[in-house]
Each structure stands twice: as C-alpha cells, then as structure tokens.
Design a protein that fits this description.
The protein is an alpha+beta fold. It has a single domain, classed as Pnp Oxidase, Chain A. Helix content is 34%, strand content 33%. Strands 2-1-5-6-7-4-3 form a seven-stranded antiparallel β-sheet, sandwiched between helices.
Length: 160
C-alpha cells in the first residue's frame, strides 16, 4: 500500500522526470520471458489514488507483451542536467532522482474527453512543430494503470 505522502512524492518525481526526458520507460516481458522497454511520454498519475493512465498509440510489441502478462515496471528518472549538477554539487538529492512503479496495465480503451484534454494541454507548447503533428496528433486510446508498489531510485551516500 502506498501512503498518501509517498504518492505525492511519486507524482512529483514522475512529473520532474517527464518534464526533463519527455517520457518514462515501461518494461514488459514477452511469452518467452524476454524483456522489452517502451518509452511512453503520456503518463498521467491521478492526484489521490495510486492509479493513472497513458495513451497507447504506436507500441505493438508492448501490446503483445501485455496480452501475455499485464504486469509492468514503469521507470521515471529525472535527467535534468541542472538537477544532477545541483545534486552533485551539494552531495545529496533534494528529491529522489527517480522511481520504479510496479503496476498492472489495463486493456486498451477509448480515451475520455477529459483525458484527451490533459494530453493536449501537455503538448500545447510543441503542437506547432512538424514532429508534434506527426507523432502526437492521433491520441485516441488509453490504458489504465494501477500502481501496486514502488521502489525509489537511490544512490548510496546521496540519499535525501
């Protein structure tokens, strides 16, 4: 069980990571036990509960793996150079540099108008770019995620 205060920390670390790297990584395994990592830039965590959703548009291997095993590990790491420089300078992290979320991934379903509004709000500043129009113009389906547990990314001697 994830406490309310831990959940708020998790949400902040994931937000920082997505702001810096523009994605999180989701690890799944196929029917032969081989791992695969998929970058997903559209993860949204709910404010109060250990749940969320993400848009799933392009990831065929990911979808195939989920048919076999719906459990996954979502890793979010803050790759901001400023965050790391400040942390290395001070010799400690202000916040955890990352988190691993052990989650159950739900089936693909149509996105609600509220979910589409959230993703459009996130990509608004880059919507005018050609790349944005090519990769972020067809968000129609989401998968819900239920976070069962987590593990912080930590480095000895620099923990907060």
């Amino acid at each position: 069980m994830i406490s309310e205060s831990e959940w708020q920390q998790i949400r902040q670390v994931v937000a920082d990571a997505q702001r810096a790297a523009m994605h999180c990584s989701i690890a799944t395994v196929n029917s032969k036990g081989l791992p695969s990592i998929t970058p997903i830039g559209t993860i949204f965590l709910n404010k109060k509960t250990s749940t969320g959703f993400f848009f799933d548009t392009y990831s065929t291997t990911f979808s195939e793996n989920l048919q076999h095993q719906p459990m996954a590990c979502i890793q979010a790491v803050n790759s901001s150079k400023l965050f790391w420089f400040h942390s290395l300078l001070k010799g400690k992290f202000k916040r955890y540099p990352g988190v691993r979320l052990y989650a159950e991934i739900g089936p693909l379903r149509p996105a609600s108008p509220e979910e589409i509004q959230q993703v459009e709000s996130r990509i608004r500043t880059l919507k005018w770019t050609k790349g944005s129009q090519l990769i972020w113009s067809s968000f129609h389906h989401v998968r819900e995620i239920k976070i069962n547990s987590h593990r912080w990314v930590e480095y000895p001697n620099m923990n907060k």
